[in-house]
């Protein structure tokens, strides 16, 4: 019976957490579209999430494209299919690697920072002070961060796609001896708008999830430092 109690306690706790997170997400989305708005805070969060994350996202995408081209050549050379390297690089970067790597880098850099910042405000009663001053904490603290995550992650991924494809180009041309014009032509011929759009949609969802989880855990922090 103790084992059954443990399973039930875990399951009920999971359901309760899921419900709180769903209510928190719904309230946050409603505050995004309802006034009042705080454009200065929104712009500041966009700069924090987007501009300051460019170096780490760009560097990660560059080396991902370079490694992908090099390792693809190692495998494709066994089947005399070296010409497909450009196609593999551009599809992998735009569809999967660009959004995933950008989401991971932003989660490591921004998600924990949001949780720590809002959590510090919660345990030092600054969130309660906002309520006392007739300022909705969800609208002032959470909504700008969610909006910035939704808008800036696709832009970061777009930049990461270009840099990642460029990294593959550098390795293919200067290391593997590909013709630059042919490599670029193969990349352009095989790339479709749907590939880029699907990656950008994933990126917006990743941005929403990263900022939502950071804000949620910070907003519901308890105790001291």
Give the SSE order as H and E letters. HHHHHHHH
Beta-strand percentage? Answer: under 5%
CA radius of gyration: 22 Å
Tally of separate helices: 8
Q: Gap between N and C termini, in Å? A: 38 Å
Structural class: mainly alpha
User: What gross morphology would you assign?
Assistant: elongated
Q: What does the largest sheet look like?
A: none
The share of residues in helices is over 70%
Overall domain count: 1
SS elements, strand count:
0
Q: Average pLDDT across residues?
A: 87
Extract low-pLDDT stretches.
Answer: none
What does this structure look like?
The chain has 225 residues and is an all-alpha fold. It has one domain (2-219). 84% of the residues lie in helices and 0% in strands. It has eight helices and no strands. The radius of gyration is 22 Å and the shape is elongated.
Break the fold down into its secondary structure elements and pairings.
Elements: H1 2-33, H2 39-51, H3 54-76, H4 85-123, H5 126-132, H6 137-174, H7 180-190, H8 193-219
Characterize this entry briefly.
The chain contains eight helices and no strands.
Task: Please supply descriptive tags for the structure shown above.
single chain; 225 residues; mainly alpha; 8 helices
């Amino acid at each position: 019976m103790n084992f059954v109690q443990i399973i039930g306690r875990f399951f009920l706790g999971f359901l309760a957490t899921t419900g709180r997170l769903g209510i928190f997400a719904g309230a946050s989305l409603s505050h995004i579209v309802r006034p009042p708005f705080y454009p200065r805070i929104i712009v500041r969060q966009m700069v924090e999430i987007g501009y300051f994350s460019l170096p780490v996202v760009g560097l990660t995408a560059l080396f991902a494209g370079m490694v992908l081209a090099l390792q693809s050549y190692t495998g494709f050379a066994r089947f005399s299919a070296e010409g497909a390297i450009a196609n593999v690089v551009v599809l992998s970067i735009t569809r999967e690697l660009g959004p995933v790597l950008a989401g991971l880098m932003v989660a490591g850099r921004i998600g924990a920072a949001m949780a720590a910042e809002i959590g510090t405000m919660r345990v030092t009663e600054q969130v309660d002070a906002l309520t006392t001053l007739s300022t909705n904490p969800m609208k002032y603290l959470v909504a700008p961060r969610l909006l910035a995550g939704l808008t800036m992650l696709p832009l970061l991924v777009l930049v990461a796609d270009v840099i990642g494809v460029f990294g593959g180009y550098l390795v293919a041309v200067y290391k593997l001896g590909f013709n630059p014009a042919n490599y670029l032509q193969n990349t352009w011929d095989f790339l479709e708008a749907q590939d880029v759009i699907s990656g950008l949609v994933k990126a917006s969802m990743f941005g929403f999830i990263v900022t939502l989880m950071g804000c949620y855990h910070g907003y519901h922090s308890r105790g001291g430092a």
